[in-house]
Amino acid sequence: MDDQNATMRSFIAVEMDETTVESLKRIQDDLSSRVPRGAVKWVAASSIHLTLKFLGDTRVSILEEVERGIERAVKGTNPFEIRIKGTGCFPSCRRPRVIWIGVEDESGELRSLQKRVDSEMESLGWKPEDRPFSPHLTLGRVRKGLVSTEIAEIGKVVSAEKAGNVGVVFVNSVVLMKSTLTPRGAQYDLIFRASFL
Questions:
Q1: CATH of the domain at 57
Q2: How many domains does the chain fold into?
Q3: Which of 10, 79, 132, 189 is deepest in the core (most CB within 10 A)?
């Protein structure tokens, strides 16, 4: 393959700290013990992140431009806090496909940051997001081929989960990650980090 055409799957995200990762793992374990066995493919807790922009197949030859765009997006941003709390499902807990935990952005800084990232990536050829930004952390994905009673049970369990205030995450950087799909799930590797200060 010509190096000019070489690509890698990538995304721009905010990482979680170790304390939050441990809390998310406990919530996953609790949910896993109550949903039908094998019905959900859980994301490795250490891989859980808050996606700001999924880039998909990205030409390796423009990675430096992407990195410069991320640096422009974070320029002048002060560190801020987000709160992790509350569970739910996409598209709904009646028809769960993705199980998530919520992210509260009381200051509005996260939304503002995501808009700047989206704008910088649009200038490099990516389409802007067509859906409103809905900050969340994906805990697991419901496997295909389940019977309706299993799907209903998953929704009930997630709706009943009392994941109150899981914790506060101090955000002071944005990362560009490489995503490699493997039989065991996606593997993530850090490509670039843009710190706020």
A1: 3.90.1140.10
A2: 1
A3: 10
**108 is a catalytic site residue:** no
Across the range 28-35, mean pLDDT stands at 95
pLDDT tens digit sequence for 117-136: 999 999 999 999 888 999 99
Token output for 70: 């991320």
SS3 content of the chain, % helix, strand, coil (to 5): 35, 40, 25
Q: Is 159 a catalytic residue?
A: no
Query: Which of 45, 49, 96, 101 is the catalytic position?
Result: 49
Which pLDDT does position 181 carry in this prediction? 85
Question: How far from chain centre, in Å, is Cα 181?
Answer: 16
Could you give the CA distance from residue 28 to residue 177 in angstroms, rounded to a whole number? 23
Distances, alpha carbon 8 to alpha carbons 67, 114, 183, in Å: 14, 22, 17
Cα 10 to chain centroid, rounded? 12
101, 136, 151, 163: the catalytic one is: 136
